Amino acid sequence: MGANDECGIFGILGTPEAARHTYYGLHALQHRGQESSGIVTSTYDEAEERPVMPIHKDFGLVLDVFDEEELFSQKLLGDHGIGHNRYSTSGASESRTNVQPFLVHDRKGNLALSHNGNLSNARELRRAFSEQGTLFQTTSDSELILHLIAQSRRERRVDQIIDALTQVEGAFSLVLLTDDHLIAVRDPNGFRPLALGRLGDAGQPGGPAWCVASETCAFDMIGADYVRDVEPGEILVIDRETAARGDASAFESYEVPGRHGVSQCIFEYVYFSRPDSKIFGEMVDKVRRQIGRQLALEAPVPEVEEGEKEPIVIPVPDSANTATLGYANECRKQGQRCHFEIGLIRNHYVGRTFIAPGQDQREMKVRGKFNTVEGLLRGRPVVVVDDSIVRGTTARYLVDMLRDSGAASVHFRVTSPPVVNPCFYGMDFPNESELLANQFDEVAEIGDFLGVDSLAYLSVEGLMEAVQTANKKNDLGYCNACFTGDYPVPVEPGQQKEEFEWR
């Protein structure tokens, strides 16, 4: 609880409804970023006799940014396009220049980019560019990739992109748009998910459309089929001619050399991704249920005395819902008395919260987002299952709300280990001093701070075992640096998050 999503990216080639499909894809990926949204398409301007890329982007949710039909019927024309939903982890969130996709024009034509992740060598790259006199339009590390592409001496655009990506480190799932191609890229570590989908089949006029997205729920939204993941370190080039054949194996594919192995972000399974998505080759729902079962083996519901009411197990909605089902089912399987209930209701339509004088801003934010089902909770032992505790502010207020609703006791169970380290690869985890788990020596002390009767986290070993048990098809490595401090891509000793995220 307290972790924030990063960004969602989407791209499509081969349909005159490219902008509209991108819109729906971004709508499905709204959970990955709510600060801003943007779409750019590629078309040919008959009057100017040249390819152009119309773009529309702004602060706000997808539904708010693209609220006029004329955007799709008159402006965002063309048969391929890309989009981006932003949650800022690098670059000032209030700056309009940081809203993606980014669009540039150079000697090779138009180029647009959408980026999910963070570059771990952004500071040194920016320093080198500054010494050369390079002018920056944004404070986002994503712009660095465009500068590297522009300065490459390679002839082909694809080769320029390959040249640029060999110079960056960290987390980067990308979709790039050229005048003729849709290009999908995943960093060699495979930190962030990226999947390939197909809309239609080879028998339709013009062949199928091809799309890429951070999560497969975006494919479901437009009726596309999941084909495969973009592999760690892969640059997948999709052009009109090959796309029309309907065979994904015909696409050009290149490799970005890696030095640090594969380390897919395990927090994607814990929290970020939607349960109806397939990431890293497996359904999130399946993995989360297994994580819940593992937590039940390590920290089941507390024993109750004879005559006491049966404990109820409730999730903190929505990311903990399926893990809580796994937890409650496994507890019952092991003979513990409990049953699953919906005791917290989430308001999905929370906008700006206006705070009256004397009110606590953080408390009102929590109360605006969650409410309790008082009749269900009164007089019962309550076991709350959540995906994580980061700063602890929300958890503490939730505990107070449950007690105010008459819960006989409140027990907290967390489907991940204590978060003790910041993330430098695209998650909005704060500095070590701001993380709740670093402020106490024992888990019991954290429980006292939260005001619970008991607190238990899933162990690192248990989390890794659960993910590997549920996803046997993917034997690649996972990043768990936020729990262990074992950073797969080197980070400078003592480096602080605000230093890394130059602004």
Q: Could you please describe the fold and organization of this structure?
A:
There is one protein chain. This protein is α+β, with helices and mostly antiparallel strands and 503 residues long. The protein folds into 2 domains: 8-262, Glutamine Phosphoribosylpyrophosphate, subunit 1, domain 1 (4-Layer Sandwich), CATH 3.60.20.10; 286-483, Rossmann fold (3-Layer(aba) Sandwich). The chain is built from 18 helices and 25 strands. Helix 5 (142-151) packs across helix 6.
Number of strands: 25
Helix content: 25-40%
Unreliable stretches covering 5 or more consecutive residues: 352-356, 497-503
Question: What's the CATH class of the largest domain, please?
Answer: Alpha Beta
What's the structural domain tally? Answer: 2
Question: What CATH architecture of the largest domain would you give?
Answer: 4-Layer Sandwich
Rg over CA atoms, rounded to whole Å, is 24 Å
CATH topology of the largest domain: Glutamine Phosphoribosylpyrophosphate, subunit 1, domain 1
Total DSSP helices: 18
Sheet of most strands? 8 strands, antiparallel
Give the strand content: 15-25%
Q: What is the average of the pLDDT values? A: 90
CATH superfamily of the largest domain: Aminohydrolase, N-terminal nucleophile (Ntn) domain
Shape: elongated
Class by helix and strand content? alpha+beta
Gap between N and C termini: 26 Å
